[in-house]
Amino acid sequence: MERLDMLNYVDGQWTGKDLKKMEVTNPATGELIGTVPSAGKEETEEAIKAAHQALPEWSKKTAEERSELLMRLNDIIMENGDELAKLMTLENGKPMTEAKGEVTYSASFIQWFAEEGKRIYGRTVPGKTENHRIKVIKQPVGVVAAITPWNFPAAMITRKLAPALAAGCTFIVKPPEQTPLTALRLAEYCEQAGIPKGVVNVICGDPEELTNAFMAHKEVRKITFTGSTEVGRLLLKKGAEQVKKMSMELGGHAPAIVCDDADLDHAADMLMASKFRNSGQTCVCVNRIYVQSGVYDAFIEKFVDRVKKLEVGNGMDEGVDIGPLIDKAGYEKVEHQVKDAIEKGATCVLGGEGKAGNGSYFYQPTVLKDATSDMEIMNIETFGPVAPIQKFENDDEAIRLANDTPFGLASYFFTSDVSRGTRISEGLDYGIVGWNDGLPSAAQAPFGGMKQSGLGREGGSEGIEEYLETKYISLKV
């Protein structure tokens, strides 16, 4: 693929040609693959103005009209799936097979909310007197500003964009500095689909300056963010000044519990898929594994047998399962956590080494046994291909260990006993619980966390509610 020098997309125009450029590099090679404009406050306000001006006409379209445009966008994404997947691999590093899977996953949100927008129902309620009528209607919240992460460059945009547009909102997205090209390609697809100018805007630039502009502008009524809990806290504080509607999908620290009656082969398959997807750089990937003492050694043997077959390399190469870490900071965090765990008594069963240089950072799939609760890796999200395993004796202990964190996004457990599984699933303080399932995400299901892992849900029927206001009309007749 040739170098891509792309522009911001504002009000149906490609803008920012004369702005300073930000470089985008391939994390597998360190090579320059493209540039995007570095916008600031002025350009962000232009995007907000465009979205605000487009709002009345877009919100007045019928749900069917908006659905038809979204379905057209879905078709264009799927028709260009190989191109989009290649672009994601180049700027994110994930293997092509995973990138192609993300294309399908990202399109599924477009398709789901194209239909869900037709089911935005109000209701009538019996009045308090004979001549009183109560009507409840749902209306779009207004201009939406989205701030998205680099680990799923397409899907983290579409699962915000699709419900926003289906609800009748207009949309601005600030993609991450590491993966802006995918976002701008999606803007091209929106243009091809015939989505009116100003309805979708993509603006790249300094994160703090763009975010501050979103927060300060009264016309931005909704902020949707996926990222770290630390940044989420700052956004919530800023959003409180104007009482903006906020959705926060924040950090996680997902536990997995393997009970002694679990199908160990299935558990090993599922946990390997969850832990090492995107090189462990997902907010819902397993971060710590708790295995009951009676099956501890047997599970580790099965798990290691699978993990050692994973191939590390450039995501563009055939047969690669594990791509690079996104940057130097991510690599150093993984290195530090592995070293800390070993110094505190963990045994490295597999991996434990990395390779850095020339702007690329690879780390071998790593399995640590004999992990304990005082290790950093058991308390802080890793975002890397390392699986620490700790022993437990009974279900109460496992649930206590799993819940001993301020985070509550995703959790997993494996048991063949329905009664036991019901107790565990209800005892875990997490917004997402995978019961014998290591890959629970789906467009039709509500995705989101409890505690310090966020506010609101994305996907499912709940996902579109985040972009709607409820209005009560009291009528005297």
From TrEMBL:
Keywords: Oxidoreductase. GO terms for biological process: gamma-aminobutyric acid catabolic process. It comes from the Bacteria. Pfam families: Aldedh (PF00171). The keyword Transferase does not apply. Residues 14-473 form the Aldehyde dehydrogenase domain. One of its GO terms (molecular function) is succinate-semialdehyde dehydrogenase (NAD+) activity. Belongs to the aldehyde dehydrogenase family. This is Succinate-semialdehyde dehydrogenase/glutarate-semialdehyde dehydrogenase. It comes from Scopulibacillus darangshiensis.
